[in-house]
Amino acid sequence: MAIKIYGVLLSTAVQRVALVCNEKNVPYEIIPVDMKNGAHKEPSFLKNHPFGQIPYIDDDGFILYESRAIAHYITKQYASQGTQGLIPTDVKEEAIYEQAIATELSHFDSQVTGLAMERVYKKYRNLESDEAKVAEVLATFNTKLDAYEVILGKQRYVAGDNLTLADLNHVPNGHMLKRMGFDILDSETRPNVARWWKDITSRPSWVAIVADL
After folding, report:
1. CA-to-CA distance for 8 and 31, rounded, in angstroms?
2. Are residue 198 and residue 108 in the same domain, yes or no?
Protein backbone atom coordinates (compact mmCIF):
# COMPACT_ATOMS: atom_id res chain seq x y z
CA MET A 1 0.00 0.00 0.00
CA ALA A 2 1.36 3.41 -0.99
CA ILE A 3 1.93 6.15 1.57
CA LYS A 4 -0.31 9.11 0.86
CA ILE A 5 1.56 12.42 0.91
CA TYR A 6 -0.78 15.40 1.13
CA GLY A 7 0.78 18.41 -0.58
CA VAL A 8 2.29 19.54 -3.88
CA LEU A 9 5.60 18.39 -5.33
CA LEU A 10 6.82 21.98 -5.80
CA SER A 11 7.05 22.17 -2.00
CA THR A 12 10.57 21.44 -0.75
CA ALA A 13 9.08 19.73 2.30
CA VAL A 14 7.05 17.39 0.10
CA GLN A 15 10.17 16.74 -1.98
CA ARG A 16 12.02 15.78 1.22
CA VAL A 17 9.43 13.11 2.03
CA ALA A 18 9.30 11.80 -1.54
CA LEU A 19 13.12 11.62 -1.65
CA VAL A 20 13.27 9.43 1.44
CA CYS A 21 10.45 7.24 0.12
CA ASN A 22 12.52 6.70 -3.03
CA GLU A 23 15.64 5.88 -0.99
CA LYS A 24 13.69 3.32 1.03
CA ASN A 25 11.80 1.88 -1.95
CA VAL A 26 8.49 2.86 -0.36
CA PRO A 27 5.69 3.54 -2.85
CA TYR A 28 3.90 6.83 -2.39
CA GLU A 29 1.06 8.84 -3.86
CA ILE A 30 0.93 12.63 -3.72
CA ILE A 31 -2.58 13.82 -2.90
CA PRO A 32 -2.81 17.38 -4.30
CA VAL A 33 -3.80 20.16 -1.90
CA ASP A 34 -5.34 23.26 -3.49
CA MET A 35 -3.41 25.80 -1.46
CA LYS A 36 -4.29 28.74 -3.72
CA ASN A 37 -7.90 28.32 -2.65
CA GLY A 38 -7.05 27.69 0.99
CA ALA A 39 -7.66 23.95 1.16
CA HIS A 40 -4.85 23.65 3.72
CA LYS A 41 -6.84 25.86 6.11
CA GLU A 42 -10.09 23.90 5.86
CA PRO A 43 -11.25 21.94 8.94
CA SER A 44 -10.85 18.64 7.09
CA PHE A 45 -7.15 19.41 6.56
CA LEU A 46 -6.52 21.00 9.96
CA LYS A 47 -7.68 17.88 11.77
CA ASN A 48 -4.61 16.12 10.36
CA HIS A 49 -2.20 19.06 10.37
CA PRO A 50 -3.24 21.63 13.00
CA PHE A 51 -0.78 24.22 11.64
CA GLY A 52 -2.34 24.13 8.19
CA GLN A 53 0.87 23.42 6.27
CA ILE A 54 2.12 20.72 3.93
CA PRO A 55 2.86 17.90 3.94
CA TYR A 56 1.28 15.36 6.17
CA ILE A 57 1.17 11.65 5.44
CA ASP A 58 -1.34 8.88 5.86
CA ASP A 59 0.42 5.54 6.13
CA ASP A 60 -2.41 3.02 6.37
CA GLY A 61 -4.20 5.20 8.90
CA PHE A 62 -1.13 6.56 10.69
CA ILE A 63 -1.10 10.35 10.34
CA LEU A 64 2.08 12.38 10.72
CA TYR A 65 3.18 15.90 9.80
CA GLU A 66 6.52 17.78 9.64
CA SER A 67 8.75 16.55 6.82
CA ARG A 68 11.83 15.72 8.89
CA ALA A 69 9.77 13.72 11.36
CA ILE A 70 8.10 11.94 8.46
CA ALA A 71 11.49 11.14 6.91
CA HIS A 72 12.66 9.70 10.23
CA TYR A 73 9.51 7.62 10.57
CA ILE A 74 9.73 6.19 7.05
CA THR A 75 13.37 5.26 7.56
CA LYS A 76 12.61 3.44 10.81
CA GLN A 77 9.29 1.91 9.76
CA TYR A 78 10.73 0.48 6.55
CA ALA A 79 14.19 -0.23 7.91
CA SER A 80 14.68 -3.47 5.97
CA GLN A 81 14.02 -1.81 2.60
CA GLY A 82 16.17 0.32 0.32
CA THR A 83 19.21 2.30 1.45
CA GLN A 84 20.58 1.19 4.80
CA GLY A 85 22.28 3.21 7.54
CA LEU A 86 20.39 6.48 7.05
CA ILE A 87 20.01 6.67 10.84
CA PRO A 88 23.06 5.42 12.78
CA THR A 89 22.54 3.03 15.69
CA ASP A 90 25.85 3.46 17.54
CA VAL A 91 25.33 5.95 20.37
CA LYS A 92 28.19 8.29 19.44
CA GLU A 93 27.53 8.06 15.71
CA GLU A 94 23.87 8.82 16.38
CA ALA A 95 24.85 11.86 18.43
CA ILE A 96 26.95 13.19 15.54
CA TYR A 97 24.05 12.46 13.20
CA GLU A 98 21.67 14.45 15.43
CA GLN A 99 24.23 17.26 15.43
CA ALA A 100 24.15 17.25 11.62
CA ILE A 101 20.33 17.19 11.60
CA ALA A 102 20.33 20.30 13.81
CA THR A 103 23.02 21.94 11.66
CA GLU A 104 20.89 21.61 8.52
CA LEU A 105 17.89 23.16 10.22
CA SER A 106 19.77 25.98 11.96
CA HIS A 107 22.48 26.91 9.48
CA PHE A 108 21.20 25.82 6.04
CA ASP A 109 17.41 25.79 5.98
CA SER A 110 17.22 29.13 7.77
CA GLN A 111 19.41 30.83 5.15
CA VAL A 112 17.56 29.35 2.17
CA THR A 113 14.28 30.41 3.75
CA GLY A 114 15.59 33.96 4.08
CA LEU A 115 16.52 34.07 0.40
CA ALA A 116 13.26 32.46 -0.68
CA MET A 117 11.30 35.03 1.28
CA GLU A 118 12.81 37.75 -0.91
CA ARG A 119 13.10 36.00 -4.27
CA VAL A 120 10.12 33.60 -4.30
CA TYR A 121 7.41 34.54 -1.81
CA LYS A 122 7.53 38.28 -2.54
CA LYS A 123 7.43 37.61 -6.28
CA TYR A 124 4.39 35.40 -5.72
CA ARG A 125 2.71 38.36 -4.03
CA ASN A 126 3.85 40.82 -6.73
CA LEU A 127 6.19 42.57 -4.32
CA GLU A 128 9.73 43.82 -4.97
CA SER A 129 12.51 41.91 -3.27
CA ASP A 130 14.81 43.76 -0.89
CA GLU A 131 18.19 43.24 -2.56
CA ALA A 132 20.03 44.65 0.45
CA LYS A 133 18.41 41.90 2.52
CA VAL A 134 19.37 39.32 -0.12
CA ALA A 135 23.00 40.47 0.08
CA GLU A 136 22.91 40.31 3.87
CA VAL A 137 21.55 36.76 3.91
CA LEU A 138 24.04 35.66 1.25
CA ALA A 139 26.93 37.05 3.27
CA THR A 140 25.79 35.08 6.32
CA PHE A 141 25.15 31.99 4.24
CA ASN A 142 28.66 32.10 2.81
CA THR A 143 30.12 32.00 6.32
CA LYS A 144 27.93 28.98 7.05
CA LEU A 145 29.14 27.24 3.92
CA ASP A 146 32.74 27.97 4.91
CA ALA A 147 32.06 25.89 8.01
CA TYR A 148 30.54 23.15 5.83
CA GLU A 149 33.73 23.20 3.76
CA VAL A 150 35.77 22.48 6.91
CA ILE A 151 33.44 19.67 8.01
CA LEU A 152 33.35 18.06 4.57
CA GLY A 153 37.10 18.33 4.27
CA LYS A 154 37.35 15.83 7.13
CA GLN A 155 34.63 13.38 6.08
CA ARG A 156 32.56 12.40 3.07
CA TYR A 157 29.16 13.43 4.42
CA VAL A 158 27.84 15.84 7.04
CA ALA A 159 27.55 13.19 9.76
CA GLY A 160 30.60 11.10 8.89
CA ASP A 161 31.68 8.90 6.01
CA ASN A 162 28.26 7.38 5.43
CA LEU A 163 25.17 8.93 3.86
CA THR A 164 22.43 9.78 6.38
CA LEU A 165 19.10 11.56 6.49
CA ALA A 166 21.04 14.66 7.51
CA ASP A 167 22.50 14.83 3.98
CA LEU A 168 19.20 14.11 2.26
CA ASN A 169 17.45 16.83 4.26
CA HIS A 170 19.63 19.41 2.46
CA VAL A 171 18.71 18.40 -1.07
CA PRO A 172 15.32 20.07 -1.72
CA ASN A 173 16.32 23.46 -0.31
CA GLY A 174 19.68 23.28 -2.06
CA HIS A 175 17.86 22.66 -5.33
CA MET A 176 15.67 25.69 -4.60
CA LEU A 177 18.85 27.76 -4.35
CA LYS A 178 19.71 26.87 -7.94
CA ARG A 179 16.15 27.66 -9.05
CA MET A 180 16.61 31.10 -7.50
CA GLY A 181 19.86 31.57 -9.41
CA PHE A 182 22.35 30.96 -6.61
CA ASP A 183 25.08 28.46 -7.56
CA ILE A 184 27.02 28.73 -4.32
CA LEU A 185 26.90 24.98 -3.65
CA ASP A 186 28.75 24.28 -6.90
CA SER A 187 31.43 26.90 -6.36
CA GLU A 188 35.00 25.82 -7.05
CA THR A 189 36.03 27.96 -4.08
CA ARG A 190 34.59 25.21 -1.83
CA PRO A 191 35.62 21.95 -3.50
CA ASN A 192 34.51 19.76 -0.61
CA VAL A 193 31.02 21.27 -0.58
CA ALA A 194 30.83 20.97 -4.38
CA ARG A 195 31.92 17.33 -4.26
CA TRP A 196 29.35 16.50 -1.56
CA TRP A 197 26.58 18.39 -3.35
CA LYS A 198 27.22 16.59 -6.64
CA ASP A 199 27.24 13.27 -4.78
CA ILE A 200 23.91 13.65 -3.00
CA THR A 201 22.04 15.28 -5.90
CA SER A 202 23.09 12.67 -8.45
CA ARG A 203 21.38 9.86 -6.54
CA PRO A 204 18.59 8.17 -8.56
CA SER A 205 16.16 8.90 -5.72
CA TRP A 206 16.52 12.64 -6.36
CA VAL A 207 17.00 12.52 -10.12
CA ALA A 208 13.53 10.93 -10.37
CA ILE A 209 11.96 13.82 -8.45
CA VAL A 210 13.67 16.46 -10.58
CA ALA A 211 12.30 14.71 -13.68
CA ASP A 212 8.78 15.02 -12.25
CA LEU A 213 9.32 18.70 -11.47
Report:
1. 8
2. yes
